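Why does residue order matter? Because the sequence determines the fold. Keep that principle in mind as you read this record.
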Amino acid sequence: MLMKALIWAVLACMLVGCAFEDMRDAHAAQQRLVGWSELDLESCLGAPDHQSTFGDTEILTYFGNSTSNKVFTLGMPFFGGLTISGGGYCHAIFRVREGRVAELRYTGETDATLAPDAYCAPIVRGCVHQAEQPAASPLITPEVTPSTTAETPR
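Structure:
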């Protein structure tokens, strides 16, 4: 009986560990993607699911759903314990002002057990990893002009 409880406790820790990594990615995106151009953001995430414009501010919304229906319970029924469910949804809402990401917020059922905003990570994970690579970070999209595309004759 003790061995089963230990195995379940280890499995629960592993599941929560994954959620913590997702939470870290979601929160990192809220800092690392600020300043990206709208073009770079859409190149990374694709076209938004919803877009609104208010003056010089655009709101780009991306939807993410966890389709997992896994539930893990550790403890005795009716006496409490830890329940880890594997489903939720997130709306990643980017506020873009003057062509640059000014803010990223999350709404929806975003929280995995003990990990706020973890269900938002799949939306932004690829861009966060791209931003972590200094040479590949698209913080500034160069403007293409005729002088930068033509080669100088020798």
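Confidence is low (pLDDT under 50) at residues 12-17, 69-73, 142-146.
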